[in-house]
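Researcher: Before we compare anything, I want clean individual predictions. No alignment, no superposition, just each chain on its own. First chain goes here; please echo the sequence and then give the structure tokens.
Model: Echoing the first chain and its structure:
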Amino acid sequence: MSEAPPRNIIVTGGSRGLGLGIAIKLRDHGYHVIAVARKASDEIARATRSLHFWPGDLADIDAIPALVKDIRAEFGPIHGLVNNAGIGTSGLLANMRSADIERTVRLNMLSPIVLTKHVLRVMMVQGRKTGGRIVNISSIVGATGFSGLAVYGATKASLVGFTKSLAREVGPLGITVNAIAPGFVDTAMTDGLEGAQREQIVRRSPLHRLAETEDVANAAAFLMSDAARNITGTVLTVDAGSSA
């Protein structure tokens, strides 16, 4: 009896931070993970056992079709995609340069939409029996707002609308589409928050703590699993209750 082929999952921005945590968690759950990023971090360079780095600049929209084609040729059928790559450009909108606005929209919104388009084409060819999983990493900022993050919040809110509509489009093919909305996650990114600001965010949480990378990674692993086969078009909030 032959072994079942590995379930390949693409994780964008998968070489560091939240993306790396998701990639490692999915690998530990038995998936074959392709971590796409512009360059490899030390952690991803040392990674072995079903976790591979794949170089790619997702801001280069025209290069995305070839990126998906090359990954499919190298690793075979694609089971899942985690759209995690993004940038958190901050600043008051009135003072923000148009180039920074365009860069944020390109990487946080246009890129995942185009990448999903080409991954879906692969999933459609594979057939309903294979199905597939799409997970978009949004943010609670897309729903609650945050001063200085108007553009970022707009891009993350757009991923929720994208998730809900796409879930209806591809559901008949057995493909699920969901989003995860992390709050402020206890990572190097939040280390830059001033002490009083960080404490205010922690106090706002009913649990009096920030969510951690592990919590978001666990949510992604669940949504990728067979246990979530009847969950689609949803947003799973992981923020220690801050937005409750």
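Researcher: Okay. Second chain, same rules.
Model: Second chain and its structure:
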Amino acid sequence: MTDWPFKQLVFNEKTPEEMHEAAQTFYDQIRIRRTVREFSDRPIPREIIENALKAAGTAPSGANMQPWHFVVVSNPEIKKKMRAAAEQEEKEFYEHRASEEWLKALEPLGTDTQKGFLEKAPWLIVVFLKKFTFDEQGKRHKNYYTSESVGISCGFLLCALHQAGLATLTHTPSPMKFLNEVLDRPKDERAYMIIVAGYPDKNATVPVIDKEPLNKIATFKE
């Protein structure tokens, strides 16, 4: 038996009918989410972003180490610096780093080196992966399953922002070390993803692409 305290689980059980309705409702809501690259500069209240981040912070993580840190940027000057650095990395990516196969795979999405959304969208959420956690005495503790944990948290965050009525974009310039410098983050943290959030531009378009059907992405063994 463990010496750590436990408490009674709070679990709101649903009937099979309620479960079916809830699952169908969530699917109907999340399936219309699209990655947006054309954003409006219309302001979004900070409280909306805060609540989405609190939802992201509830994600499960290895040994409950919660190996994430979110840097939320609305400052125009910082966004300008982020865009300049990201576009420099993207130029290298498209011209030198990416293979022909990779570039071919990106063609249907219409991506290029221009990342204007980093300046125009009202909020940029930079997700950092923390390799270590430091306690109140400054002692360093290793975090576990960091990539898996941070990935789950990002999924929670995207769902929360979508549920709130915001458009989002996951942006991962490669490499992203410049973000530690621009955002003054420790070297032992690794930039994992930039999540762009806001209203879509009124003339925003998205590529005509499909998602694989259930029988292509899942196998049932009953």
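Researcher: What stands out in the second chain?
Model: The longest helix spans residues 76-97. Additionally, The CA atoms of residues 131 and 188 lie 6 Å apart.
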